[in-house]
Design brief:
Layout: H1 6-33, E1 36-40, E2 44-48, E3 57-62, E4 66-73, E5 76-80, E6 86-90, E7 94-96, H2 97-109, E8 117-121, E9 125-128, E10 137-141, E11 146-156, H3 168-171, E12 177-185, E13 190-194, E14 198-200, H4 204-207, E15 214-226, E16 229-239, E17 249-258, E18 263-285, E19 291-300, E20 306-314, E21 317-321
Antiparallel strand pairs: 1-4, 1-7, 2-3, 4-5, 5-6, 8-11, 8-14, 9-10, 11-12, 12-13, 15-16, 16-17, 17-18, 18-19, 19-20, 20-21
Length: about 350
């Protein structure tokens, strides 16, 4: 007969426990790795305890919340929030981790884009990853939200009953072209919004001189002293009052302040441009003239090539600044409307 003391039995149990833990650890790592996460893409939604016409609310989620996906049932997903609340939510209120990462990268890529104008949301509207109505969206602007306008894009409008933009030849109808703005909101979210849902927030001093044109962008070039106040002088960038044009803008105006008559006057105006955003402004030293405001336009020629045009403001005179060897461009002819 062999006798085993209690000490040996304890050691044997410890060894067995360690072997069991060793066997389980790889499975735990695999389980964590295979976890599915998603992000809430609606301003607010209730979680429900079951997928049924009658249900109990178990919690609330908000835009941008990270949740763990536990189960799927038709158009619903069972999720767990970061505070442990579980419930069912409609699939359309979620975006994948891949889409979320794409939004973060998109914001990072455009964090230094020059602002073309401030804007205000006319209605509640989604912020899309691409300039298309059916593109993924994660964040939403509420009516009255303030944004920074960065760029413009155009796409064919999706027709009812068709997946995305469809060629006119397939539908035998002329498909309208929609304008989109690339915007950055006050939370630094970046994405595309229908241009007609954003109003350019321009001061009345220059907006009143639009003369039926649509103001695309505006910039303060400098300030002049009139009595005891400082008055800004502006560059205004305008286009035709409809969407789908083949250019971002086709006209610029510089407004300077007449200190003798105490009013704005048009110091410079240029039409028939095939302008491409962004417009940039700054300052530059011009020797005897001193440091002056400058602005840079990007303009396409008849072959679609984009060139830069620099201008300087020596109030009230605006002049082109030619690069070494550059020849003054010929006045553009009247462009065909799209």
């Amino acid at each position: 007969m062999i006798f085993v003391n209690s000490s040996c039995r304890s050691h044997a149990r410890i060894i067995q426990l360690l072997l069991l833990l060793t066997a389980l650890l790889p499975g735990c790592k695999t389980s964590r790795k295979n976890q599915e996460f998603a992000y809430v893409s609606t301003p607010q939604a209730f979680l429900r305890d079951r997928v049924a016409p009658v249900y109990t609310k178990t919690g609330i989620v908000k835009s941008g919340d990270r949740v763990q996906v536990l189960d799927h049932d038709r158009r619903f997903v069972k999720i767990r929030t970061e505070n442990g609340t579980e419930g069912w939510l409609e699939q359309r209120y979620l975006v994948t981790q891949t889409d979320y990462d794409a939004f973060q990268k998109f914001a990072q890529d455009h964090q230094s884009d020059p602002v073309q104008a401030p804007g205000i949301a006319r209605n509640d509207t989604n912020i899309h990853l691409h300039p298309a109505r059916d593109a993924e969206h994660l964040y939403q602007l509420t009516q009255g939200s303030k944004v920074a306008i960065l760029k413009r894009a155009t796409t064919e409008k999706s027709l009812p009953g068709t997946p995305g933009a469809v060629a006119a030849s397939e539908t035998k109808k002329e498909i309208p072209i929609e304008d989109w703005w690339l915007i950055r909101d006050q939370q630094a979210h970046v994405g595309w919004v229908l241009a007609r849902l954003i109003d350019v927030d321009a001061p009345l001093d220059i907006a009143q001189y639009a003369e039926g044109q649509r103001l695309v962008a505006f910039f303060v070039l400098n300030e002049v002293t009139d009595g005891d106040k400082k008055v800004p002088q502006y560059l205004a960038v305008l286009t035709e009052p409809k969407g789908g044009m083949p250019f971002d803008y086709n006209q610029i105006r510089v407004f300077t302040w007449n200190v003798r008559k105490h009013r704005y006057e048009t110091a410079y105006r240029e039409r028939n441009l095939d302008g491409v955003l962004p417009v940039t402004v700054g300052k530059e030293n011009f020797d005897k003239e001193g440091t002056l405001p400058i602005f840079m336009l990007h303009v396409k020629d008849d072959n679609g090539n984009v060139s830069d045009r620099k201008y300087k403001l020596n109030t009230p005179i605006v002049r082109r600044v030619l690069a070494p060897g550059e020849q003054p461009s010929k006045p553009a002819g009247k462009r065909k409307k799209r």
